[in-house]
What we know:
- 45% of the residues lie in helices and 5% in strands.
- By secondary structure, it is mainly α.
- A two-stranded parallel sheet has the order 1-2.
Amino acid sequence: MVTPCPLCHTVLDGFQREIEKDIGQKLDMPILHLPQLVGLALGFSPDELNIDRHMVPAGVLKAHAANAPQGQRP
């Protein structure tokens, strides 16, 4: 999921484990902030965008980023 709102990102990422307990279902859904998605599209690595600092692991993005063509960044 991608959100343009910093507060929404914080709530969706930070409270997902609590929400999972409430609904009795594992979500394990990475939440990205819009600038991170734009950064990935521009060729920045997940490490450069601090994606590993999310509460819900977004490691699945590393596999996709590794397979993406490496282009020139602005």
